[in-house]
Amino acid sequence: MMGWRLLCGGLIFVAISTTASAGMATLAGKMTPTSCWLSLFLGVIAAVLTMRSAKAPRQKITHAEMILFVIFALASLRAFLWVLYPRESELMVLSPHNLGDMALHLNLIQRWAHGGAFWPDNPFLAGAIFAYHPGVDLWNAILRIMGVPLYAGLRWVGLLGAAATATALWRWGRGFAVAGFLFAGGLGGLAYFLMLHTDATQTDIAWKNPFLTMFVTQRGMLYSLPAGLVLMSVWRAQLNNDAQGPHLPALAQVALYASMPLFNAPAFLFLSTILAACAMAGWRVGTARSFIVVGIVSIIPATWLVRMVTDHFTASSALRFSPGWMPEGNSLLFWVQNFGLFLPLVIVLVVLLWKSSSTDNAVRPFVAVGVMTLAFCFLFIMAPWAWDNTKLLIWAYLTLLPFLYTHLLARLSGWARDGVYILLFAAGAVALVAGLDARHGYALAHREELASMQTMLRRVPVNARLACAPGYDHPALLLGQPVVMGYEGHLYSQGLDYTPVQRELNDLMLGTDNWRNAARHLGVHYLFWGERERGAWPQSSQPWRECAIQLAKEKFGVLYLLTPCLMED
Length: 569
Known about the structure:
- By secondary structure, the protein is mostly helical.
- It has 2 domains: 2-435, no CATH class; 445-566, no CATH class.
- It has 25 helices and 9 strands.
């Protein structure tokens, strides 16, 4: 029971602290030490009250589950202790999936911790809206303001989020859910065993190992996964009128659910569907009231956060009809490689439940939402990048796992069940080991260049937009400075049309006749010229050098103030 109380108390602490900090930062226009201390104080009070009232039955951990917890711990230690680390003269990330994403996280944390505007302009594209759910980055910014070193904060938040996720997975679906999350994958990885190819990391697979490709890189999942699984565990018990099941006070449920838009928008959409399904199913058994209360009380805070992360509801939808999900989705081989036995097992489960007279009130609504979510993700694409559907697919997958085990796999004989386990999890296990291989490591930044840029940026206001070369590894971006145009992968995945900005940035950096007007339109008063810029615009005439003020010159580049140039006709 103590594990459940710690889990719920910790999640409530993060939910209340970040939400309160977001509210105070919105009123003040930036984060301050005073508002951070106050938000942490409110979080502690909420956490203590939650721990006093949360309860769950004691459950024995089997030897097999203990082994899974050890594997989860080892994988988490490897992934998060090396999430960002120095190696000789470079700053490295372990996962290639984290190269582009890490720049976004570092930029937001650094900018907010140094008094940057809140809610910010888009730090990666001049004049664009900023529609994003940065809850965990906001939490890291709070820790940074409180004196926790940046890289240490990233590691500790990752490790604590991993511990919370492992515990919540076990509460939701016991060891089968833990294994399903760690080792998810289709049959593609079996080709590695059969020597048909040597790519164990599933590069050519759409449904990659979620631990590596989502949990480590999509930092919002460090909160949304454990919080969402806790809610589903509580709602399942409430729907079954299980007085001995896990319990969480209604206000604590509201805090976890209503804060979800700040951390993970797909999670909020999915949990809203689950909550509605539980309320409808609850009419038959007299438990609808508890779900309706949570939904009604959550309307105001959840709507405020949705408004914030959609930049006042201005974010455009990229939803489009695309049967088969990926371009290769019309091939049977695609579905076998990606999902293996999982989809056939889901079909068998649905047939069994159709014929069953189960007294478990939660089975049908949870399975129905899980299956409908799978169907939706296979028929529609929600973002410009089709792979982003996996951020919703993971919720359908985890929701179905416990019911697959209790209503289907648990009925199989030992050898048959073990064979299914191998076919379900072998590919994902291979990918997990390969993805955490000690020989990996990818350079994100040159440490000396980063230090040089940090010295120069002391002359630049934290909210001033800098003209520089686009790229996820530009030191100005990693240090929290908003830039005219950042990594194209981020801009594309957010559905932003960066072509006009790119054209004006080219005019400015090349020094065309229109460069002054381009700088004015982009709102740029500072320009950095270094090796990346020389490589991107080798034909530049650099006319701004004649009228700009040279603020700083270091080994890796020169920083200019363009204001005198822009005052000229």
